[in-house]
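G., the chain you wanted modeled:
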Amino acid sequence: MANSAQARKRVRQAEKSRGRNASHRSMMRTQIKKTLKAIDAGDKDAASEAYKSAVPVIDRMAGKGLIHANKAARHKSRLNAAIRAM
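Predicted structure as tokens:
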């Protein structure tokens, strides 16, 4: 248990940050799933549109440090390769 004022403040900040990070991570995963769903459906136009909306979200999460830059690049590369293979 936090005993000092500084430690109590860090607990409050960490809780707020954890909630925000969970929300952002969920948003990113939703965008990726929408793109994958369009790819599975075989609709190249919808998949391209979903990809275009997912890329800025993925980049933003990498910029915030929520995911590593290489993970963001891997997601984008694999989604793009799947769309191009259609």
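The chain has a mean pLDDT of 95.

Shout if anything looks off.
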